[in-house]
# Entry
Amino acid sequence: MKSQNSSNILECVEYLRLGEIIAYPTESCFGLGCNPNNLVAIEKIYDLKHRPNQMPFIIIISEWAHLDAFDCEISDDQMQQLRSTWPGPVTWLIPIKTKHRLASDQRKIAVRMTDHPIASMICTQFEGAVVSTSANPHGLPSAKTAKEVHDYFGNKVSYILDGPLGDRTKPSDIFDLETNQQLR
# Structure
C-alpha cells in the first residue's frame, strides 16, 4: 500500500497503462479501477468482485475531453445538465453511438466527473477515464480503507493508493441523462 503523494499517483497511473488493477480513494469508499478500454483488465475486476457480467461499471473522468473516447451523444440541453452537477458526486447514464463493453444494453455508459482530488488526479495523469467500482466483493460492504481493500483482495490488486476518502457516506446518485430519472 502506498500513501498518497504525486510520485505515487504517477506510479499508480503506470499500473493503469500496463493493464493492471488499482485501488484508490473516492468520494465515499475505495474504488477498484482499470483502463476502461482494456477488456482483459475489465474482466479481471468482474472476477475479483464476483459480479455479474451484465452489470456495467461506472467510469470517472476529470476533464470534459475524457468523454470524447466514448462517442457520447449529448445535446446542448443535456450538456447544461451535466455542467450543473459536475464535478461532483452525480453519475449520469450517457447515450453513446457505438457499442462499448462498459455500456448497458441501451447503449448508455455510466460516467461521473469526480471532485475527489486523488481520483481526479489519477484521471488527469492517465489522460483519460478510469473504471470506478466499489472495492468489495459483490454483496459485501465497500472498503473504507486501504487495509480493507488488501483484506478483500490481497495481491490480486496490483496497486493500492492510500489516501483519505471524501465526505460522502453513500455512493454517488445515478441519473439517466435522457429521462432525468434517478436510478440510485
